[in-house]
Amino acid sequence: MTSIEQQLIKLKIIPVIAINNLDDVIPLGRTLIQNGLPCAEITFRTDFAAQAIQKLRTTYPDILIGAGTVLTIKQVDDAVEAGADFIVSPGFNPKTVQYCLDNNVTIIPGINNPSLVEQAMDFGLKTLKFFPAEPSGGTAMLKALSAVYPVKFMPTGGITIDNIDDYLSLDSVLACGGTWMAPSKLIDQGCWQEIGELVRQACLKLS
Ligand code: 3PG
């Protein structure tokens, strides 16, 4: 198991974040750290992703940073250069996966069916994102996949404070991701206290 996987297992919950304003990066990082989740998956759904990763990395050198919604090799390069620890993609793109493997970059690609798991295993991958988790069958699908394949999953997509227990109770689940702790609307409005409370509530699920 890689050190990134070990850190994900320890953290168990990864806030998935879209940054629309670079001024939000430091207060958000501080809020996550102070409330118990020193990690973030910053998605390339906004144009600020690479700059946000860089700012977060510079300000909080020890925070675990994933780059999310990575769709291209250029985005892999931008994310790694900015200081991302690992790459997450919504789907399984062999080109991006091979590029990451060739460059010793940890990638957790998305899968949601047996054929994709097998393709990922062919590349030697052992940790996969299960996305979109709830629309793809949720824990029932994960149980079925885990009965067959010796891989670990990081489900995201539709996970909330109300169903995370069901996911975390599965041995095959390394960690869960989601936007519910730091939704864009609250980030854009600078609601750090509310986000802090959502993060604390999520952390209570781990105790
Ligand atoms: C992701 O990018 O991992 C998901 O879109 C997060 O899904 P959620 O908004 O349902 O948590």
Which segments are poorly predicted (pLDDT under 50) over 5 or more consecutive residues?
Answer: none
Bound molecules: 3-phosphoglyceric acid
Any idea what the CATH architecture is?
Alpha-Beta Barrel
Major sheet summary line = 8 strands, parallel
Alpha-beta classification: alpha/beta
Oligomerization category of the chains in this entry: single chain
| Largest sheet strand order | 7-6-5-4-3-2-1-8
Gross geometry:
globular
Alpha carbon gyration radius: 16 Å
- Reading the helices and strands in chain order gives HEHEHEHEHEHEHEHEHH
Number of strands: 8
Give your account of this protein's structure:
This protein is of the alpha/beta class and 207 residues long. It starts with a helix and ends with a helix. It has helices spanning 3-11, 25-34, 49-59, 73-82, 94-102, 114-122, 138-148, 164-168, 184-188, 192-204; strands at residues 13-17, 39-43, 64-68, 86-89, 106-111, 127-130, 152-155, 176-178. It has one domain: TIM Barrel (Alpha-Beta Barrel). The longest helix is centred in the C-terminal third of the chain and has 13 residues, at 192-204. Strand 3 (64-68), helix 4 (73-82) and strand 4 (86-89) form a beta-alpha-beta unit. 3-phosphoglyceric acid is lined by residues 16, 43, 68-69, 131, 156-159, 177-180. The site of 3-phosphoglyceric acid has 13 residues, from strand 8. It comes from Vibrio aquimaris. InterPro entries: Aldlse_KDPG_KHG, Aldolase_TIM, KDPG/KHG_AS_1, KDPG/KHG_AS_2.
